[in-house]
Design goal:
It is a single chain. By secondary structure, the protein is an alpha+beta fold. The protein has 2 domains: 72 residues, no CATH class; 209 residues, MetI-like fold. The chain has 15 helices and 4 strands. A hairpin with a 3-residue loop joins strand 3 and strand 4. The longest helix is centred in the middle third of the chain and has 37 residues. It is flat and about 85 Å long.
Length: 386
């Protein structure tokens, strides 16, 4: 057999194996459960998979903020106020290429503008080190640690610059992510429960109960959202602690975020309550609550999952808006919204553009959640191709 015949035979065998694998995969999907089918379709959505991995990384860093942040949330450097971001380099004119390093910063007062000018001292090279030993601390107040992920010996590392009090913006962005990302879960879970509860009751029972709930929904939806948030947030006492304020903001976002879901759940329940499976459940002696929770709501669970995914970025934007307006999380606690409070002045943005860096993370988180939501929506669609 010639070499050409061997190549053709090999290609034929490989094509047959691929065909067999495709047939096996189709057979497995034919008998697969709904959750497995959703996961199979979701994996084929590359942007959604990338968004899920990016969000997992963001939440992992936020939960371990004490380890990933080079400095503490409130740690100050009085001599380095309004310092621009430190440039990381890998090439020096004298020593050539080497491991990532920074030059030590020096500052001088400009007598014309009365502002400090920062310059790099190219004779002082400081390599960036990983797992740097520091003072003992606890991650999430529980796990004892003595090392941080990144640091520099003999110099200060400000990846995103510093603020007006000399605090490292990069470290504060990481600590702020814990509040901004986690507050979405609390608000979404509470609004999800309220939306399913009131929407299910309204659609299942109808009559006077339906009219009363729908009038409440219309009243809440007719009020402009931001003024309503501001009014409810203004009722939060200013002397409350960080934990109390956190839960208050979560409650406020949930109280005004359940109306849209309640409307959809009501419509779905009305269209399904006369179906045979629902009538059979009632005929078997099932209570109203059991029929709603065990039979009607699972019938459109795919929509509810997608709604949950897309509602989290709305909660993040809501908290950021309230904190930006000074009505949300209050100092010394930090969120992305509180960090953006200092960027309200055009003069500040012109001179210190790194103050807008937290806005990039808000956009990134919202965008990744939208990618995941789009992927789940396509995966949960029973008419989409596998």
């Amino acid at each position: 057999m010639s070499m050409l015949d061997k190549i053709k035979a090999f290609q034929k065998r490989r094509k047959e194996r691929r065909k067999e694998k495709a047939q096996q995969r189709q057979q497995q999907l034919y008998y697969a459960s709904q959750s497995r089918l959703i996961w199979h379709r979701f994996k084929q959505h590359k942007l959604a998979l990338f968004g899920a991995l990016a969000l997992a990384l963001m939440y992992f860093i936020a939960l371990g903020a004490e380890f990933f942040a080079p400095y503490g949330m409130l740690e100050r450097f009085p001599d380095w106020q309004y310092t621009p971001p430190t440039q990381i380099r890998i090439y020096d004119e004298e020593t050539g290429y080497q491991r990532p390093f920074i030059y030590k910063m020096t500052r001088e007062l400009d007598t014309h503008t009365f502002r400090y000018e920062y310059q790099e001292d190219e004779t002082s090279i400081h390599p960036i080190r990983f797992f740097v030993e520091t003072e003992p601390y606890r991650v999430l107040g529980v796990i004892p640690m003595r090392h941080r992920l990144i640091g520099v010996e003999g110099a200060d590392l400000f990846l995103f610059g510093t603020d007006r009090l000399g605090r490292d913006v990069f470290s504060r962005v990481i600590f702020a992510a814990r509040v901004s990302l986690l507050i979405g879960f609390g608000g979404v879970v509470l609004s999800f429960v309220l939306g399913c509860l009131f929407g299910g009751i309204s659609g299942f029972f109808g009559g006077v109960i339906d009219e009363a709930i729908q009038r409440i929904v219309e009243l809440l939806m007719s009020i402009p959202q931001i003024p309503l948030w501001m009014a409810l947030s203004a009722a939060v006492p200013r002397d409350w602690g960080i934990i109390e304020t956190y839960f208050a903001i979560t409650l406020i976002l949930a109280l005004v975020g359940w109306t849209g879901l309640a409307r959809v759940v009501r419509g779905k329940i009305i269209s399904l309550r006369e179906e045979e499976f629902a009538l059979a459940a009632k005929a078997a002696g099932g209570s109203e609550f059991r029929v709603i929770s065990k039979h009607l709501l699972p019938a459109f669970m795919s929509y509810l999952i997608v709604h949950l995914t897309l509602a989290i970025p709305q909660m993040i934007l809501g908290e950021t808006t309230l904190s930006f307006l000074g009505l949300g999380i209050q100092p010394p606690a930090v969120s992305w919204g509180t960090l953006l409070q200092d960027a309200q002045s055009l003069q500040v943005i012109a001179h210190y553009p790194w103050y807008l860096i937290p806005a990039f993370f808000v956009i990134l988180a919202v965008l990744m959640f939208n990618f995941v939501g789009d992927g789940l929506r396509d995966a949960a669609d029973p008419y989409s191709s596998s």
